[in-house]
Specification:
Blueprint lengths: L7 H51 L13 E2 L10 H5 L10 E2 L1 H11 L48 E4 L16 E5 L29 H4 L11 E5 L4 E4 L44 E2 L12
Parallel strand pairs: 1-2
Antiparallel strand pairs: 3-4, 3-7, 4-5, 5-6
Keywords: Membrane, Transmembrane, Transmembrane helix
InterPro entries: N_methyl_site (IPR012902), Pilin-like (IPR045584)
Protein name: Type II secretion system protein
Length: 300
């Protein structure tokens, strides 16, 4: 009797078919995975937005701003300090001054609005991880997560989002314009664990309506979602995945400082690290994240 089985040719055909199916399905599965990351990221920002409004209700309508009165963007802070004066370097006499960071502003929601550190991590932001107190060294006995003032010793590795710069002339309050963008995925022109930033010189905003995909316009998008856009949190707590970075009030670019003192600016100027950096006006969205190395140098 003849034994039944695959011939070599039939086996090769089966392998070829499997390889072809894998080649077709893998990109689709990868796409679904990225869309899931995008959805989760948007959910995170929506929760953060609601927590910000709760926080503002308890703190004279001010959205989270770490440090003392007139504090500056000049962190990092002493995340495991025993009090706010030591954490930010605040004047003990009048509670003024001090330095703070973007992540320490976000961390106020962990301390006072019951938001978990996991809510600040976007799965599409490679290199950013959920902060756990257990991973830190030299923590005093009995020290808990609610006692901290930031996401550990390297907070930029544990927070995926940029925030409307709250320091300077224009205070960020819950009574500002509802359509003002206040948080989003990381700024694409600032170095971060997500990867190398895009060159600002390559970015050129296109005009509305958007017809097709303009590569130079996509250079202005966050890199957490393959450059296709960014999840943006607006002051009224709604979140939108925007295909262009110029999506705030009057089509203002959320990642750059406006060049116009009166209206929005779809282009703006490349962001810089500086203690006196601030939005151009009350309608100017300026979303930034912290540098890994502090100092007043211009960004790449």
């Amino acid at each position: 009797m003849k034994r039944k089985g695959f011939t070599l040719v039939e086996l090769l055909v089966v392998i070829a078919i499997i390889a072809l199916l894998m080649g077709i399905l893998m990109p689709a599965l990868s796409r679904v995975r990225q869309l899931a990351f995008r959805l989760t990221c948007g959910t995170n920002l929506a929760g953060i937005g609601k927590a910000m409004l709760i926080y503002a209700n308890d703190y004279d309508d001010e959205l989270p701003r770490a440090g003392g009165r007139l504090s500056q963007w000049n962190g990092p802070v002493v995340w495991n300090a025993t009090n706010r004066y030591d954490a930010y370097g605040v004047n003990r006499t009048d509670g003024s001054g001090g330095k703070a960071s973007i992540t320490s502003c976000f961390y106020l929601l962990v301390k006072y609005a019951e938001v978990t550190p996991k809510s600040f991590v976007c799965k599409g932001d490679n290199g950013t991880t959920d902060w756990q107190l257990a991973q830190e060294m030299n923590v005093a006995p009995g020290f808990e997560m609610i006692d901290a003032w930031d996401f550990g010793a390297s907070p930029w590795d544990n927070c995926s989002y940029s925030y409307h710069l709250p320091f300077g002339t224009y205070a960020l309050t819950s009574s500002s314009e509802p359509g003002l963008a206040i948080a989003a995925d990381r700024n694409p022109w600032m170095k971060s664990p997500a990867g190398e930033p895009g060159a600002f010189a390559q970015f050129t905003p296109d005009a509305r309506p958007f017809n097709g995909t303009t590569e130079t316009a996509l250079k202005g998008n966050a890199i957490s979602h393959q450059g296709e856009g960014q999840n943006v949190l607006f002051l009224d707590a709604h979140v939108e995945f925007t295909r262009r970075a110029f999506c705030s009030l009057e089509d203002d670019n959320i990642y750059t400082k406006s060049r116009n003192a009166a209206t929005g600016d779809a282009l703006g100027t490349a962001p810089v690290y500086s203690t006196n950096y601030a939005p151009m006006n009350r309608k100017d969205s300026l979303l930034v994240h912290d540098p890994e190395t502090w100092g007043g140098r211009p960004l790449p």
